[in-house]
Amino acid sequence: xxxxxxxxxxxxxxxxxxxxxxxxxxxxxxxxxxxxxxxxxxxxxxxxxxxxxxxxxxxxxxxxxxxxxxxxxxxxxxxxxxxxxxxxxxxxxxxxxxxxxxxxxxxxxxxxxxxxxxxxxxxxxxxxxxxxxxxxxxxxxxxxxxxxxxxxxxxxxxxxxxxxxxxxxxxxxxxxxxxxxxxxxxxxxxxxxxxxxxxxxxxxxxxxxxxxxxxxxxxxxxxxxxxxxxxxxxxxxxxxxxxxxxxxxxxxxxxxxxxxxxxxxxxxxxxxxxxxxxxxxxxxxxxxxxxxxxxxxxxxxxxxxxxxxxxxxxxxxxxxxxxxxxxxxxxxxxxxxxxxxxxxxxxxxxxxxxxxxxxxxxxxxxxxxxxxxxxxxxxxxxxxxxxxxxxxxxxxxxxxxxxxxxxxxxxxxxxxxxxxxxxxxxxxxxxxxxxxxxxxxxxxxxxxxxxxxxxx
Length: 456
Ligand SMILES: *Cc1c(COP(=O)(O)O)cnc(C)c1O
Description:
Blueprint: H1 5-17, H2 25-31, E1 36-40, E2 43-46, E3 51-54, H3 57-60, H4 69-81, H5 94-106, E4 111-117, H6 120-137, E5 145-149, H7 158-163, H8 167-170, E6 180-183, H9 188-191, H10 197-215, E7 220-225, H11 241-252, E8 255-258, H12 273-277, E9 283-286, E10 298-303, H13 304-313, H14 327-342, H15 345-363, E11 370-376, E12 379-384, H16 399-410, E13 413-414, E14 416-418, E15 421-424, H17 432-453
Parallel strand pairs: 3-13, 5-6, 5-7, 7-8
Antiparallel strand pairs: 1-2, 2-3, 4-10, 9-10, 11-12, 12-15, 14-15
Helix pairs in contact: 4-14, 5-14, 6-13, 10-11, 15-17, 16-17
């Protein structure tokens, strides 16, 4: 591809000075970065002036779409008024308080307090410390272990990466840290074998019970999970999974932590994945769609049960971040939530665009390369396989996904590859016409990929 002179200059500068996250540096230096310069609605433009349909909403976060002037205005006004003050030492600011109240309104009824962070990873670091603190205060200090799942994603700080179940991440930096164990994920397509999805869902949910019994219930603090695994490949658990997990958590009285960093703020067609699945989390990490990515912010929603213990029995909680409750981030997040609420974006997704997206997306099931086309709300995944009848993946895992992703970029579509699973998580404002455009591009790129891989 021919690049404009400005692109070449930026790529060269980037290569010399910028170490990117989740990047193979040598490979990137050879290819050169793709430089994104502006965005509007669901579209991005790169430094060569090419337009891309962003079916990933940035990194699962730009729920209201790009170019919302109200959000820029909220940041600008807040920065003029009070650009920074902290929330340590018994102080607050109007935007932090306003956002906390708004969050209590939109989240499930028993979640009435928030602990602010700057990211989803920091939210999960907070989770680790808060659940252990909770059980200490309950005079059950042996309850220290957190149970998570293989292939979960909970961020990239030491606690986030440890809670996550990504093997390549664990392989760097001697993770997980002690006190975190992982059980199987509810990934029926890859692991379900001959079992029906519901049989498989119950079976993997019971791994939690087995692990609790193996460790001893007096050693277990909490179970943490995403309602739908996002970065793991949009893995939607069978219907039988969550009811069984709920039963186990309440029977054994361990805390349930539902990581809503992706599923929160409308992604499933409900405000939260917990609403969709009828879960009652004790702690609920949030980020991403909280501000639609316009400014960094995250948090942990804390249930009345946990909050009351921290407040009544706690003394000082020695934890917090310089930017906890950052005024500009809070102002933008509050404006973002009001857009989602007042423009009824979630209702429109649930009643109008998600059913259409899912209907069209599932048509891809007929493509020779696609073993499974699954989705829920504004999430979708395609399993690219060598043989769809036997559910067999390609020998070299990840190659087909990489080939398909590259064709997508070349043809004006951002779709992400997780191994050989192609995934989407579009902005919630995507219209039916734009869904048609997405489908046209997706089919074209699947055809190109099939041809390249010799799949008829
Ligand atoms: C992205 C993500 C995180 C981490 O959030 P950051 O803001 O990148 O630190 C945590 N949990 C889930 C489910 C995520 O998708």
